[in-house]
Amino acid sequence: MEITGSFHSFFVFMALPQPALCCLWIKNKRKVEENMNETRIFADAFETAFATPGELLEFLAERGKTSKWIRRPARMLRLVPISEEAEHMEENAEDDWEGILKDTQENTKLALKIRGEAYPVRDCAIHTILKRAGISGNGLKRLETGNYAKVVNYCLKAAKGDVLIKVADGKVSAVHAGDDSDYHILDMRTIFEVTIQYLNNNFIGNSYVEGSGVYDHSVVSAMWELGGNQELLDTYRKALADHGIAAHIISPAVRLTTSDVAASGVNLYPMLLCGSANRTISLGNPIRLPHTNGADISRYMDNLRMLFSRYQDAIADITKLMDIEIRNPLNCLRLAMKKVGIRKNLINEVAELFEHQHGAGNCTAHDLYFAMNEASFFGACEGMQGCSILSLEEQITRALQLDWKEFDVSGAINW
User: Fold this and answer.
1) In this predicted model, which residue has the larger pLDDT, 67 or 250?
2) Which domain of life is it from (predicted)?
3) Which end of the chain, N or C, is less packed with Cβ atoms under 10 Å?
4) Is 168 a domain residue?
């Protein structure tokens, strides 16, 4: 069975009946539904999707009610094996205490002590805890839980300043730098609500892409089709026509991604929806708002106002690729994907699909960039989720700035 098009990493609805893609969408939709039914929200692996933006807003409002923020001196934190603290924690336990304990024992196996109180640690909190301790390295992962905690604690004792701790759904989800000049909380529900209002006021005819709203404990994301604003793509369509390229673009789109556990700032990604299966093509680097330097809603509104100009810049970048002829497309594709850090197994799958669909003859860098975006499809097939897919898509966008001719080499390659 021939596979055409790309499965969007966050279960973008496949409107047209392409059998292979429809089967994949159904498979992943069932996976999310099973996750919702069988995995409680406290679990590290919890993930869910939303059919409407209203569902997303309601869910984020509920998460706000089940979360709290604690500010403490960094040197007062201590990591401990959760097995040593479990009996002391039960007195103030959540309703789902047994499930929280079991899930933590299956994942981090750690609790964080804060002035006598102890909280189970979620996996997405580990990188922030290590950052506060000022340590890193794969060697830590090889230590037994008790020794791991001791190493981190030695470093935490010497840490300076305050930390800002997020406790959500019964577990520590992040330990941010907590001084006034450091991490600033940006309420996720407010971010999405403001975005919806802005798009409704300034991009008439926009529509939420069904199923694109996805939440896990590290990141939340959603996409809107800007179907009533086709003028954003006029320059691109003209360039496609001038180069004799047939591309069935549906519309521009924008994806919003944010996190409050340091996995992402508040990022707006310009996108294309195109092809017969709602392929998603990233148009370059997002408009970013880090959670630092006094970040607030007014600064985010400034970023929203940049959307139109960002499309103009992004279209200019992708249009330039049409004039770059590639004589050795398979080599160029593999080497360019390697350069931006994509895994070898995904590179092979993308290259095999490209060869099947286009052969090994001359093409343009524009053709190869579109092909690279299929990596998200294959990543989703492998079970990549949430933050991992976002990282993959950001890797892909780096290719827009490559010197493609550098990778257009003949013969066998060492990659």
Assistant:
1) 67
2) Bacteria
3) N
4) yes
